[in-house]
User: Fold these one by one.
Assistant:
Number 1:
Amino acid sequence: MSKTSGGKPAAMWGGRFEGEADELFRAVNDSLGVDWELVQQDIRGSIAWAHALGGAGVLTPDEVSKIEDALKELSKEAAAIPSPPLPSGAEDVHTWVEQELTKRVGSLGKKLHTGRSRNDQVATDLRLWVVEQCEHRIAEVKCLQRSLVAIGSKHASDPIPGYTHLQRAQPVTIGHWALAYVEMLARDVDRLESARGMAARSPLGSAALAGTTFRVDRSELAMRLGFSAPTRNSLDAVSDRDFALDLMHASSVCSMHLSRLAEEMIIFATGEFAFITLDDSVTSGSSLMPQKKNPDALELIRAGVGRALGNYTNLLTLLKGLTLAYNKDMQEDKPPVFDSMRRLSLLLRIAARVVERTTFNLEACERAARGGHANSTELADYLVEKGTPFRDAHEVAGRLVREALAGGCSLEDLSLETFKKHHPHIEQDVYARLTLDAVLKRRDVFGGTAPARVREAIDAWRRSLGMS
Ligand code: ARG
């Protein structure tokens, strides 16, 4: 730490080096512009480390509390610094924190790095950050789930077509449709919780790669940082970024779910479908075509998976083939992870807003649900009850659909005579079975779309999401 020139802080390895770092080297090597994001985690980790050094007898209790007070002060100041303090000349956030600490407590600050390396430090910081991000994303996913449950509650029994191959298949209720996304998002919460668990291990005490020589209590350190346990192998601890990959996986799948929701809502909002109306506040107009109302927010949500997956691939690829233990390649882990989290947070929040402000055009939904001969499965089921084997019933119902298509009408518009021409067992009671109401009500199985089942599912979700 001896050589300083032109106001630039000395590098942390000053003793071994004679010349100064090339400016292009610094441009490629310095990471403060990116890892400033970890400043609060670095300070938390440093406070915990000071206590560990106190426990090991390296620092006196008085020194520990001086360091702790100064770092707490620094934490407040750092929170008020809006962008990375590049003029400080610090190479990375770890250097910055140490520099600032030393400014405040003098040479005592230089003791903090005893028995620690930036390798176990950065692994700790990133783990702390990932744990917090998991918690934030889980909260945001739950908000979106609440918006969907609210829509579902409002329209628990209102019909809408259900599709396969984007062809009308069988009617479902809007509540059932909304809850399908709630279920997907619930699995995203599970994945985020699992990623959180993976990240919650403490690398501190691993030092550069082989373990620290000072007798720190690693379990106590882990607890102090809110981690569940210390990592078990120092070589692995400083070079493991799997926990960040797990987060990226969880966020890619979540982004994929969001993109499916977005695409469906985009289709539902077209003039051709007109099932929903999007709120003006989350759409935009055209500079040329006065009639346009574009679903930009939904389109950007749909696009989000590209970024999520790109970042995931970036991180996975940069880790491939790395020898043990730390390699500088690993510094490149942060931009994709940070970017994915910022984006996912934004997309989850806007998705909740779009959903909340969407109105369903119930008439159009119902009209579409009645059309498309989507009650033909019901006709086949009806024949099964009258003793016809399902394959034959399917055939008869198919022929009746052709009759209806030829006549430009629905199945329930066919005369009883026509029905009977195709199957003598069809009676007057077929008409009651073909109504939209009956078709919905009969899907009365756990997980089915019968309005009573949907209401049950909604109640369960309301309870589990803490909705009144
Ligand atoms: N800025 C570095 C990173 O993010 C910190 C660790 C540096 N360690 C080292 N041995 N040079 O990975």
Number 2:
Amino acid sequence: MTISSTQAIPQTSAIPEHVAIIMDGNGRWATRRHLPRTAGHAKGVQAVRRVVEACGRRGVRYLTLFAFSSENWRRPAEEVSLLMRLFVQALEREVGKLDGQGVRLRVIGDLSPFEPRLRDLIEQAQARTAHNDRLHLSVCANYGGRWDILQATRRMLADNPGLVQTPERIDEATLSRYLSMAWAPEPDLFIRTGGEQRISNYLIWQLAYTELFFTDRYWPDFGAQELEEAFEWYRTRERRFGRTSAQVDAADKR
Ligand code: FPP
């Protein structure tokens, strides 16, 4: 069972155990260079590679990337289809390397609208890396935080129909067991690149006490050094989880 930040005080350390990233700014990175937006996404895949490697080296245990939100279907069909092709290529090309690096890959979200070929590749990649435990890499695809809470509620009630008559028995622990990342601790550090300061329907349950780091840098320009800067900022944060500063100091001295 993972610790809920609203139910208990989680242990924290200098390097965040779980980093969640919104990789924003691919399109603007490309437009600035008079390139098609899709060139920015292709460059973004290289940034994913750099960040996965850096997280592995720095001892991060969980890295969760927002690759495609449930709202991204609203983009031009050509861009959506390029993004799908990039996922397929990345899965085909990178899974061996990820496996060699001890990375366990999971794809999180409602995968039902994806092409069968992409779904097969996802399943194969997940199965191939299932024995790894060094870094848990989750790629959120067709994911939305509200979707996650709804699917969790539906599955909880399907498993426990009696709860409809006794809703007072539903607590955080009961529901959170059905969230799609129930096996992971809540993110310690959230990073959003590209200058926007929004959560954009990402992991909205799990980010309750996460430290939020925003940078103007576009995702294709993000790498090990920028990750280190985010870690440095994270170390300056006092994680109070609802307590006073004095209580935090006293707990740290114990
Ligand atoms: C946001 O930039 C980025 C996306 C919607 C897609 C992210 C995808 C990748 C980095 C490539 C594939 C990833 C994996 C895991 C293989 P934007 O297009 O919204 O940029 P903009 O705000 O500048 O328009």
